[in-house]
Structures are given as structure tokens and as C-alpha cells.
Amino acid sequence: MNFFIRLAAYLFHPLLMPLLGATLYYIVTPRFIELEIMQARLFSIAIITLFIPIIVFFLLKNIGVLQSIHLQSVGERKIPLMVQCLLLLLIIKMVFDPYESPELYYFFVAILFSSISALILVLLKFKVSLHQMGIAGVTMFLIALGIHFKVNVLVGIGFFFIANGWVASSRLHTNSHTGIELIIGFFVGILPQLVMLNFWL
């Protein structure tokens, strides 16, 4: 049981959420998108939001800035979140166009605002749950996709609501976060996605 609860923190790691959101978009959208374009964009997202942050983490760990990948202290989160914001700006500028792919473009804009909000909270010495922030944002994005494309995604929505609870239980079980940090993380993830719906839904 202990292993099952802890598993959520790895399956729904914040670094995986941008790639998961984009994958869900390509699964749900009824629009025809060439396979090569889809693969190229997913590969670009994986490189920018997953592989580069992992490389940066090991560099920061080697020079003693970070102690572990869990970023347990508030201070350790500052540089990784700054790097994440810069990488998200790169995706917004180089990978997606607001006219060609408005759903994904504003999905990443919302993630950027969530990351900036988390960074501001870190500067205020508050450790928001990045895991909860990530899974909540993807859940809201999937709900919006279902409404936008008039596609039945109730099974997926149900799964992600369960995943939100699973992630919250995992973070509480490992004493990684308090209840208030999880609640604020949930709203920091979901509110920017809600605001961005005005531009594409």
C-alpha cells in the first residue's frame, strides 16, 4: 500500500504534465494533424520540459545548489522554477502558434502563469505543491477540450479526478506537503487554465 501511494508522485511528476496535456490534446482533437507534425511537437515538448530540466537538475546538484530531486526546501525551488519559466517561454515562442494551435498555445501560457505564481510564492517563503498544481491544470485542460470539441471524455475526467486525490494522498503520506499547500497548489494549477479559456474555448 505504501508503494502504491508513493507511486503517484512519480507517475504524475510535474515535469511530465506538459507532455501529458499535449498528448491528451492529440488524442481528443477531431482535427486532422499529420503524424510527423504531431511527433515533432511532442518530441520538442519532451526535450524542453523534461530532458533539459533533468540535465539542469544534475548540473545544479553537482555544484551544490540542490540536494535532491524532491526540492524539499523552499529555497531549492527558486532556480528550477526560474528555469522552468524560461523553458515555457521558449515553447510558447518557438513550438506553438496562437492561430494554428490555440488550445495548446494557451495551455502552455496557463502553465507559465502557474509556474510564475509558484515562483512568487517561493519568494514569499511558501512551498506550494507542484505535483498538485500540475495534475489540476491538466484535469482542467481535459475538461475544456471535451467541451470545446464536444467529445465525451467523462472516463478520462473521472480518472484525473481520482489522480488528483491520489497525488494529494501521496504528498500527505510522505509529509512532503501540508493540506493548505496542496489546496493552494490545486488552485494555482486550475485558475490560469480557467482564465485562458476565454481566449480559445
UniProtKB/TrEMBL annotation:
The keyword Metal-binding does not apply. This is PAP2 superfamily protein. Keywords: Membrane, Transmembrane, Transmembrane helix. The chain crosses the membrane at residues 7-28, 40-60, 81-99, 105-124, 136-162, 182-200. The keyword Transmembrane applies. The lineage of its organism: Bacteria, Pseudomonadati, Bacteroidota, Flavobacteriia, Flavobacteriales.
